[in-house]
């Protein structure tokens, strides 16, 4: 059984040991890669601290950037790029040392190093991929960013090699090569993948290598559990098409639908299920809620009235409950959160981003700042990252729609969608204009000056 994180793997292992038996091995993709490499090489691979230690990573990136900028030709490339396009965290007035220590810049570079590592392609292949990119106007920027980031990636590869270390991407790629070369023979009859909708191409390559191994009498059978409606990690390399196209990819297979949800009630389901299926590319499913009710469970609320709504909710509770406040990003964290937590401890108020809420649940959910320009977030991927990620989808705001679906379905009893009446999100407008079964407390107004 494969899971995408240590916590998920541990929870699954405990659950299986209790309800089935302890003979089922649960691992993350990274621990599976480690196991395969150890079996072939006879020792555990050394994982670079840059992958797990934020300070070590920041120090290395700063040192690498300064070395790059002290090279005249490299410095000229950066200067030329910055005359046409911005780079997150880059400010002209900063000293070289201060600039190299920019957290925003370091995050931008590290994300691209991760995507380049997952892609596993050479520079010439990447240039060809850019030339084929559908957005012709973005190609010049993509090539320019590649000219800046490729030396960074090569420096990273050289650092790993010099220290005889690997990172998580190279670990999975090395393990895949060992399986394809017949150096590792899979020991398992069944390979199960949880949260399959989060799969990326390089992880899938490892799974396919294990399931298609020629050196076993009976090839392992793949059993995947996933929900394309909750595919929200394209920015990290996941590709929803690997889920929606599962049957076409694997041919003879059996698809079983888990048609009942035990979390959210039927009135949340009526809204969320209809909303997500507006995208015709999502797999069609008949999802029913075990908990039935007739009272509307989704409320559209003016953002300024959250205090009032929380006060009423707190007054109605006879026992402690859980309440999630969800933002599209961390900027939506309410300034009054601590005050609210102290005032209404019975509500169990917690803030997190919509992405972080996946897999969580609460009695009540407030989705904050569902406003135009914030949620759905505009697609700002016009540089190299747009080329390195999975191909774009034709349906407008497809991934943002799935993220909103995830936010709605964290609630067991009631969800509030909060917006500014002067600038409601297209999602809020859709819920109102298309007569979804919601309680509307938002009186939309024309923006000032119009």
UniProtKB/TrEMBL annotation:
Coiled coil: none
Top EC class of this enzyme: isomerase
GO-annotated cellular components: cytosol
Reactions catalysed according to its record: Couples ATP hydrolysis with the unwinding of duplex DNA by translocating in the 3'-5' direction; ATP + H2O = ADP + phosphate + H(+)
Nucleotide-binding is among the record's keywords: yes
Statement: the UniProt record of this protein carries the keyword ATP-binding: yes
Cited PROSITE patterns: UVRD_HELICASE_ATP_BIND
E.C. code: 5.6.2.4
SUPFAM superfamilies named among the record's database cross-references: P-loop containing nucleoside triphosphate hydrolases
Keywords: ATP-binding, Helicase, Hydrolase, Isomerase, Nucleotide-binding
Stored InterPro entries: DExx_box_DNA_helicase_dom_sf, DNA_helicase_UvrD-like_C, DNA_helicase_UvrD/REP, P-loop_NTPase, UvrD-like_ATP-bd
Xref: NCBIfam families: PRK11054.1
Protein name: DNA 3'-5' helicase
Organism from which the protein derives: Photobacterium aphoticum
């Amino acid at each position: 059984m494969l899971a995408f994180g240590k916590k998920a793997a541990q929870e699954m292992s405990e659950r299986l040991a209790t309800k089935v038996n302890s003979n089922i091995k649960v691992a993350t993709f990274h621990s599976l890669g480690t196991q395969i490499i150890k079996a072939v090489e006879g020792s555990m691979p050394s994982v670079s601290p840059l992958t797990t230690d934020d300070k070590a990573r920041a120090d290395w990136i700063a040192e690498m950037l300064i070395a790059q900028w002290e090279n005249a030709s490299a410095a000229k490339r950066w200067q030329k790029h910055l005359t046409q396009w911005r780079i997150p965290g880059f400010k002209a007035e900063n000293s070289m040392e201060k600039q190299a220590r920019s957290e925003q810049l370091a995050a931008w570079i590290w994300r691209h190093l991760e995507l380049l590592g997952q892609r596993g392609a050479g520079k010439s292949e990447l240039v060809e991929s850019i030339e084929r990119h559908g957005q012709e106007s973005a190609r010049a920027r993509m090539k320019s960013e590649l000219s800046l980031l490729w030396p960074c990636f090569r420096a990273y590869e050289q650092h790993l090699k010099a220290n005889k270390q690997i990172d998580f991407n190279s670990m999975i790629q090395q393990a895949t090569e060992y399986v394809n070369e017949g150096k590792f023979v899979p020991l398992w009859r069944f390979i199960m993948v949880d949260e399959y909708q989060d799969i990326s191409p390089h992880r899938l390559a490892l799974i396919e290598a294990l399931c298609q191994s020629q050196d076993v009498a009976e090839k392992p059978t793949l059993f995947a559990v996933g929900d394309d409606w909750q595919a929200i990690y394209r920015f990290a390399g996941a590709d929803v098409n690997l889920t929606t196209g599962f049957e076409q990819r694997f041919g003879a297979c059996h698809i079983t639908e888990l048609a009942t949800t035990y979390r959210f009630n039927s009135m949340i389901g009526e809204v969320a299920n209809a909303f997500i299926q507006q995208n015709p590319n999502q797999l069609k499913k008949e999802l029913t809620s075990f908990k039935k009710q007739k009272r509307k469970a989704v409320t559209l609320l003016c953002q300024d009235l959250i205090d009032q709504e929380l006060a009423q909710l707190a007054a109605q509770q006879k026992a402690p409950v859980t309440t999630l406040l969800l933002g599209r990003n961390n900027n939506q964290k309410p300034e009054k959160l601590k005050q609210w937590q102290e005032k209404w401890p019975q509500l169990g108020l917690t803030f997190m981003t919509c992405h972080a809420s996946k897999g969580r649940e609460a009695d009540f959910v407030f989705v904050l700042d569902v406003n135009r320009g914030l949620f759905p977030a505009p697609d700002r991927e016009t540089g190299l990252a747009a080329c390195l990620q999975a191909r774009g989808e034709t349906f407008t705001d497809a991934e943002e729609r799935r993220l909103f679906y995830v936010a709605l379905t964290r609630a067991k009893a009631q969800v509030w969608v909060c917006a500014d009446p002067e600038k409601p999100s297209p999602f809020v407008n859709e819920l109102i204009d298309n007569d979804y079964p919601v309680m509307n407390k938002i009186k939309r107004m024309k923006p000032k000056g119009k």
